[in-house]
TrEMBL record:
<dbReference type="InterPro" id="IPR011006">
    <property type="entry name" value="CheY-like_superfamily"/>
</dbReference>
<protein>
    <submittedName>
        <fullName>DNA-binding NarL/FixJ family response regulator</fullName>
    </submittedName>
</protein>
<dbReference type="InterPro" id="IPR000792">
    <property type="entry name" value="Tscrpt_reg_LuxR_C"/>
</dbReference>
<feature type="modified residue" description="4-aspartylphosphate">
    <location>
        <position position="55"/>
    </location>
</feature>
<keyword id="KW-0805">Transcription regulation</keyword>
<dbReference type="Pfam" id="PF00196">
    <property type="entry name" value="GerE"/>
</dbReference>
<dbReference type="InterPro" id="IPR058245">
    <property type="entry name" value="NreC/VraR/RcsB-like_REC"/>
</dbReference>
<keyword id="KW-0804">Transcription</keyword>
<dbReference type="InterPro" id="IPR039420">
    <property type="entry name" value="WalR-like"/>
</dbReference>
<dbReference type="GO" id="GO:0006355">
    <property type="term" value="P:regulation of DNA-templated transcription"/>
</dbReference>
<dbReference type="InterPro" id="IPR016032">
    <property type="entry name" value="Sig_transdc_resp-reg_C-effctor"/>
</dbReference>
<feature type="domain" description="Response regulatory">
    <location>
        <begin position="4"/>
        <end position="123"/>
    </location>
</feature>
<dbReference type="GO" id="GO:0003677">
    <property type="term" value="F:DNA binding"/>
</dbReference>
<dbReference type="Pfam" id="PF00072">
    <property type="entry name" value="Response_reg"/>
</dbReference>
<feature type="domain" description="HTH luxR-type">
    <location>
        <begin position="148"/>
        <end position="213"/>
    </location>
</feature>
<dbReference type="InterPro" id="IPR001789">
    <property type="entry name" value="Sig_transdc_resp-reg_receiver"/>
</dbReference>
<keyword id="KW-0597">Phosphoprotein</keyword>
């Protein structure tokens, strides 16, 4: 079955463009569009899309507030995956949205292939965390907050190692190579981490790791 998508942006041209690009993919289907956050909350409840592309800055209700309302109004195990759309590399609203449960963010000038790939990635349960801009965003904001490094009592030493690598943007395959583990073992560790820390997905795991000081922001490259 096709992955269902909802596009939320206050600019009609942007909505139309994204819709055309996504509908051209055989495995993707745009089921709705909204021009502001309030409309997005209503449509999300009615349409229950798999993925929502959400603009950050909109009238009536911004993307961050809409994300919180949508995720708060869904049952456990049934929330849509929300990808924030922004024209800015660094945006406080995006960070707040990640903390609220968004699965990542995408720059509006991304290529059609990147847009389609982003939808598939989050629909599969992963997060858009590999791009350097995402790591820079989280590290910059983590630097501004005092953190006390801790080792979460709930996690085993190996799970803590995996969490550190997830926070650095590594995929399961890369983590498996780094720790000399089977990829399926890494997937199990990631699942256990999310369950034990009561986190929605890898995006929240990254935010948690930086805020808790499990990973200390490194120097700017």
């Amino acid at each position: 079955m096709a992955i269902t998508v909802m596009v939320v942006d206050d600019q009609e041209m942007v909505r139309a463009g994204f819709t055309a690009l996504l509908d051209a993919q055989p495995d993707l289907e745009v089921v709705g569009q909204a021009g502001d956050g309030a409309q997005a909350v209503e449509l999300a409840a009615a349409l229950k899309p798999d993925v929502i592309l959400m603009d950050v800055r909109m009238p009536v209700l911004d993307g961050m507030a809409a994300t919180k309302r949508i995720l708060a109004g869904t049952r456990p195990g049934e929330p849509p995956r929300i990808v924030m759309l922004t024209t800015f590399d660094l945006d406080d609203y995006v960070y707040a949205a990640l903390r609220a449960g968004a699965s990542g963010f995408l720059l509006k000038h991304s290529t059609p292939d990147e847009l389609a790939a982003a939808v598939r990635v989050v629909a599969a349960g992963d997060a858009l965390l590999a791009p350097s801009v995402t790591r820079r965003l989280i590290e910059d904001l983590a630097r501004s907050q005092p953190v006390v490094p801790i080792t979460p009592a709930q996690l085993t030493p190996r799970e803590t190692d995996v969490l550190r690598l997830v926070a650095r943007g590594l995929s399961n395959r890369q983590i498996a190579a780094e720790l000399v583990l089977a990829e399926q073992t890494v997937k199990t560790h990631v699942s256990n981490i999310l369950t034990k820390l009561e986190l929605r997905d890898r995006a929240q795991a990254v935010v948690y790791a930086y805020e808790a000081g499990v990973v200390v922001p490194g120097p700017r490259h």
